[in-house]
Amino acid sequence: MTLDDGRFLMKAESYDDALVKQGYSTDVLKAQNLVRVHPDFRVIALGLPVPPYPGRTLDPPLRSRFQARNVKSSSPGSQLEELVGVATSVPLPTLEKLVGIREAVNTIESIYDIGTSSGPRMPHFDYLSLAHCAKVLDKFPNANVASIVQRVFPVRANILGVNTESNSKALDRIVAKYTNGLESSKYFFDGAVKSSPEDVKATLTFRAFGHDNAKLVLYDVPCGTARNQTNALPDFVETDSHSEILAEMIQDHSAGSDLCVIGAKGSGKSSLVRLFAHRMGYATELFSLFKDMTARDLLQRRSTDSHGNTQWEDSPLIHAARNGHLAVLDGVHRLGSDSLGILQRLIQDREIDLADGSKLVPQKTYETILADANKSGDASALNRVSAIHPSFRIIAIAEADPATLRATAATPGKESTAAWLISDSISMFSFHHLPIITSGQSEEVVRHLYPDLPDETTSMLLSFSEKLRHAKESSASADYLALSLSTRQLLRVCRRLDAFPEQSLKDLRPLLHDALLTQFLSSSCSRLVDALLDECNAPTTIPASNMLEHQEPDAIREEGGRLCIGDVSYPIQNPSNPELVPQPHYFDIPKHTQCMKAMLQDVVAGQKHMLLIGNQGVGKNKLADRLLQLLQQEREYIQLHRDVRKRKRLTNAFKEMSNWSYFSVLQTTVQTLTLVPTLVDGRIEWEDSPLVRAAKTGRTLIVDEADKAPLEVVCVLKGLIEDGEMLLVRAIAIDNPDEESELSLLTAYAPSVEVDILRRLCRAFAELRELVENGTITYPYSTREAVAVAKHLEKFPNDGIASVLVRESPKKYCC
C-alpha cells in the first residue's frame, strides 16, 4: 500500500525475502521508501447487513479480501444471565420483563419490509441500553420501568416525528404489557454532599414516593471538581416538571450514563443543564455544534503557537474529558449521524484515539498500563496515553419542536431535525424530554420574576403566547414556523415592560412585533400576530409615521449628568479613553430619535445587549454610534465576514442571543474572533481581539455584519453570552425612516436644494421600497442611496434629478 508521503508498506515475507535472498540492506530498502509491515498486523472490519439496514453493499473485490463471520444476536437466556451479573439486587422476574421488552421491539424491527411496511423502521434496541435499565433498577429499587425504558429508547412521535407514530404506539403496547403489575416508586433528588471541596465523589440523597416512601442514599457517585450547590440558580424558577426531570437525569448519571436533553425551543433545556451542573458541582465546557462540523472538529483542531508553529488543540469535549468537567454538546441535532458516530467509542467505552497520535483511555486501563510500565521499567507506553477523568460526563442538547417535525414530515425531500436519532445514536445517551412549557408554568415563572408587572399586561402577554403556540401547531403553513416566541424571549419582553409599567399595555404590541421580527417575515405572519393580539384585546398602537405627524418629536438633552430622550433617562459615562468614544457625522431626525429612545429604554430595563437588524443603508451603524456618543460609552468594533464555503444567513440564530469594538479580517474564524495577529520585531504575536478587550474592560462591542459570520463563529458568540450569566439579545428592527424624517435628513445634507425636489425624491424612494416588498424588484433601495442623490444635487445643482438617479442607482445591475 502506498502512503501519502511516498512510502510503501510491504508484506513482511516479501521484505524479509529482499533482505535475505536478494541481499539488499536495510538502508537500501529504507532509501527506497519501503516499510515492513509487522507480521502480527490484522484488520477487523465491522459492519451491518445491507439490506435490511441502510448503507452500501460491500464491493466484491473488497469483500473477497476478508473472511466473513456472521455474529448472531445473543439469546434471551444469555442476556438474562448477563443482566443478573450487572444488577444483582433486581428481582429475576423484573429482569425477565426487561429482556422481553427488548426481544419484542427487535422482533418488530426484523419483520420490517421496505416494500410493504408504512413508516420508518423501528430502531434497534441495543443491549447496552438494556443493561443501563438494569443498572438504574439496581440503584433505585422499584423505579418506574416504563419511564426508564422510554429514556433509553425514545421512540415517541413528539421526538422522532409524526411518521413514527406507529412505532411509538407499538412500543407503548409492549411496555404496558410487560410492566403490568410491577410496583413502582418515584424518586426526587434531595441533595449531594461531598466530604471535601476537592473530592470527586459525592453522597446523594433521594426521597422515594409510591412503594415504600423511604429515603435512599447513594455513596461514591461521580461528581464535579467544583463545589456543589443546593441553593436556587439566579433568575431561574424551578418548576415541578424541572425537578422531576432533574431527578431522572441524576438517576441515569448515577448509573454511569451520558445524557441528552431534548425538547422544543424555549422549553428550558440549557437552564436544566446548568441546574444539573449546579447541583452536582460540575464545571461546564460548552461545545456548540453546527451542521458542517467534521468528525475531526469534534476532537481536535489545528492552531498556531506564538512562534507560528502549527499544533493540535483539544476541543472543549476532549478538554472536559481530561479534567473531569461536564461537556455540553449544544445543538447535537445539527450533526450528521456519521459525524456523531465518531463519539460512540468515547461515550460507550471511554476510549478515543486523537489526531495528534495520543490516546485517551479509562482510569482503570491507564492504571493497568502504568503498573505494567513500572514493572517492566519501560515508560514509553505512557508517552501517548492519558487517562479520562472518572468524573467526566457528557450532556447533549437537541431540539425537537413538534411544529417543525410536522412541517418537515409534510415536505418531501426535507431532512427532519430528528434524522440524527438512528439506532447508533440512540444507544449512546439516556434521553430526557422536556415538554413545551405550559401556560400555567409560564405564568408561574413570569409572576415570580416580575411580580410588579401589571396583572392585565401579564395575562394578555401569556394569553398571546398560548394562542401563538396553538396557531403554529394547528396550521400547515411553513411560514408560521418562523414565529418563535420562546421562554427567554417572553422574559425579555417582560423585563422591558416591567421597567416602564405605566405604559406596558401600550408597548405590548410593538414589543411583540419586534421580538418576532415580523417586519422581515411574510405578510401572513404579521397579520396572524395582529389578529391574535386583537383576540387578546391588546391596545392598537398608532403607526410611527402617523405618531410623528401629530406630536412633537422627542428632544435629546442632558440634565444633571444624565442623557434624556423624551421621558427616558440614563447616566452618562465618564470615559477613561475618550478617543474610543465614537464621533459620527450624524443629523438627528425624528425617526432615528424614536429608535434611540427605544434602545435607551432597553438599556434602562437592564437589556444592555441588542441586535439591530434592518435593510442595508437604513442607518444601523449611525444609530449605534450616536447612542454611544451621547452616553460617552467607549466602543470596540469588529466586522465579521462570511466564510466563502458557507452561505447561510444567521438572523434566526442571533434572535436568541447577544454580547458584543475596529477589527476586520478577510475570513472570520473562531481563532480570529478572539486573537489578532500582529508583527512585532519581525515575528508574529497574537494579541487580544476587540471582543476580548471589550469583555475585559467593560466597553461596548459593536459586531458589524453579524449575519455574514460562519455558523461556528455564531456558536462562539452564543457560548460567550450564555455561559454563566445568560445575557440575551434584544432585537430591534430598523426600518427606513418615514417621509418627514427622511425629508428632514435630506434637507440637512442638501440645504440649498429645493424642498419640493427633495420631497419628490423621498416619495420616489418610498415607491421603490413598496415594489421591493411586493416582489416586483429585488434591490432594497434605502436611505443611503437617497442621501447620495441629495448630496450630489447639493454639489452639482445643474444636474437633473433623473441623470443623478441613473448614476447613483444600482438598478441596472439588480433589477
What order do the helices and strands come in, and which of them pair?
Elements: E1 8-10, H1 12-20, H2 26-31, E2 34-36, H3 60-63, H4 76-86, H5 92-110, H6 127-139, H7 145-152, H8 157-160, H9 165-179, E3 186-193, E4 201-209, E5 215-222, H10 240-254, E6 259-263, H11 269-280, E7 284-288, E8 300-304, E9 310-314, H12 316-323, E10 326-330, H13 337-341, H14 344-349, E11 352-353, E12 359-361, H15 363-376, E13 385-387, E14 393-399, H16 402-410, H17 423-426, E15 430-434, H18 439-449, H19 455-474, H20 487-499, H21 504-516, H22 523-535, H23 544-550, E16 556-559, E17 562-565, E18 568-571, H24 590-604, E19 610-613, H25 620-631, E20 635-639, H26 651-655, H27 670-674, E21 675-680, E22 683-688, H28 690-697, E23 700-704, H29 711-722, E24 730-733, H30 739-749, H31 755-773, H32 783-795, H33 801-808, H34 811-814
Parallel strand pairs: 1-2, 6-14, 6-15, 7-10, 10-14, 12-13, 19-24, 20-23
Antiparallel strand pairs: 3-4, 4-5, 8-9, 11-12, 16-17, 17-18, 21-22
Helix pairs in contact: 4-5, 4-6, 5-6, 5-9, 6-7, 18-19, 19-22, 20-21, 30-31, 30-32, 32-33
Q: What percentage of amino acids are in beta strands?
A: 5-15%
Number of helices: 34
The count of β-strands is: 24
Q: Distance between the terminal alpha carbons, to the nearest Å?
A: 57 Å
The strand order across the widest sheet is 7-10-14-6-15
Largest sheet: 5 strands, parallel
CATH top level class name of the largest domain: Alpha Beta
Oligomeric state of this protein:
single chain
Shape: globular
Rg measurement, Å: 32 Å
| CATH topology title of the largest domain | Rossmann fold
Class by helix and strand content? alpha/beta
Mean pLDDT: 83
- CATH architecture descriptor name of the largest domain: 3-Layer(aba) Sandwich
| CATH homologous superfamily annotation of the largest domain | P-loop containing nucleotide triphosphate hydrolases
Any idea how many domains? 5
**What is the helix content?**
40-55%
- As residue ranges, the low-confidence spans are 643-667, 724-729, 811-815
